[in-house]
Amino acid sequence: MIQGSQMQRRVFVAAVFVIMAMLGGFVPDALAHGVTTGDKGYIQEVSGVLPIPFTYLGAKHMMTGYDHLLFLFGVIFFLYRLKDIGIYVTLFAVGHIITLLSGVLMEISISAYIIDTIIGFSVVYKALDNMGAFQRWFGFQPDTKAATLVFGLFHGFGLATKILDYKLSPDGLLTNLVFFNIGVELGQIMALFVILIAITYWRKSGAFMRHAYAANTFMMMLGFMLMGYQMTGYFTT
Predict the structure, then answer these.
(1) Is the pLDDT of residue 31 over 70?
(2) In the structure, how many helices (H) and strands (E) does the chain have?
(3) Lowest CB count within 10 Å: 72, 151, 185, 198, which one?
């Protein structure tokens, strides 16, 4: 008969896999780098400086952006110190901010399917990194901080391509984008808080290392699914 503690561990691990599946496979595409239909209509109609609405939209984007959450989950998977988590999350945020602002203000337009395919690859890359694949295959460890910054640039650019499609009013554009980024960072903090609580509990259960490889394998699979979905969209539209 399964002991109570063993049952709890199995239930928790199963819950983690279900959550990852929901993040990667069953969430509508509108919640990735786009926005919902209602939010899109609002963005296209408003003008002037609107700090609260754009802060809210930024936070909502991060909290519902399953590609962001999957990548961040992978980034902090083996980080135990808050200092290290802060460094990596900051690098990701800096990259995100740079390309979001520059992409919109300079009107740099690239196919969203291509950018989102690269973003899906970022999830695959981080899962492989966590699994130690690069050391086994190539005999070296890529710079994890540099990779986090670079992929942060692509994540920000992914949203910029969608915002350009919505043709925001130039009245108050820069200020609204700044507040949008503030919302993104607030949303990121809230999302990380939830992820950290879950992963800390998982680590204390004693099952973390036993299931770490399987969890990253599953995350890699979700990344490939995101890539396949976007590449299919690119070649069929």
Answers:
(1) no
(2) 10, 0
(3) 198
